[in-house]
Amino acid sequence: MSNAIYKPYIVGVAGGTGAGKTTLAHILFEHLGEDRAIRIAHDAYYRDFAHVPSDQRAQINFDHPDVLETDLLVQHLQALSRGETVFIPTYDFTTHSRSYRTLELCPRPIIIVEGILVLVEQILRDALNLKIFVDTPPDIRLIRRINRDVEERGRTPESVTLQYLETVRPMHDSYVEPSRKYADLIVCGDRDFTIATDLILGHLYTIFEKK
């Protein structure tokens, strides 16, 4: 079968922690369906820190671009574009290490990639056809981050707040916020996504019909 059939349209969804990136990506994916789209979280490509003593892993700056294996993500996007199946890593956020399990992804016409640093590195930006930045006020993002990390990752509110002040906010100011200039579309993350999703889906359905 011709590789041209699989040449995907790749959508990048970026924004600060707790901005609503995952929510927007999920809404888009749910509307498009598994036959049209796949989702890839940039977070899945965190480097494996299993070799680092457990009491030191929490001190790693997980909001810096260097802790992500972005080159591997780009390789996987290129493989999907060639019509190949890929096996992406899975990450255990409670232990700060990669799981032994991988996730099998088959080529689809539309690929949604989401993460705080998706628009930071040119090698990944160049792989994207549509670049979206979700812009949300800092106080709302912090509250969402605390709620998520406490409920899903076994953290305490105090540890989340400390991490936010020491690394998350400085890295947001240094990398995430400046990357919004590369976005084709900026979406407000503190309100309903209905208008934004209607606009994006209309565009993606047009792309899908062409494919």
What is the secondary structure topology, with strand pairs?
Elements: E1 9-15, H1 21-32, E2 37-41, H2 54-57, H3 70-81, E3 86-92, E4 97-105, E5 110-114, H4 122-125, E6 130-135, H5 138-153, H6 157-176, E7 185-188, H7 194-210
Parallel strand pairs: 1-5, 1-6, 2-5, 6-7
Antiparallel strand pairs: 3-4
Helix pairs in contact: 1-7, 5-6
Question: Could you please describe the fold and organization of this structure?
Answer:
This protein is α/β, with parallel strands linked by helices. The protein has one domain (3-210): P-loop containing nucleotide triphosphate hydrolases (Rossmann fold), CATH 3.40.50. It has seven helices and seven strands. A five-stranded parallel β-sheet has the order 2-5-1-6-7, with helices on one face. Strands 3-4 form a two-stranded antiparallel sheet. A hairpin with a 4-residue loop joins strand 3 and strand 4. Helix 1 crosses helix 7 (194-210). The chain is globular and about 50 Å long.
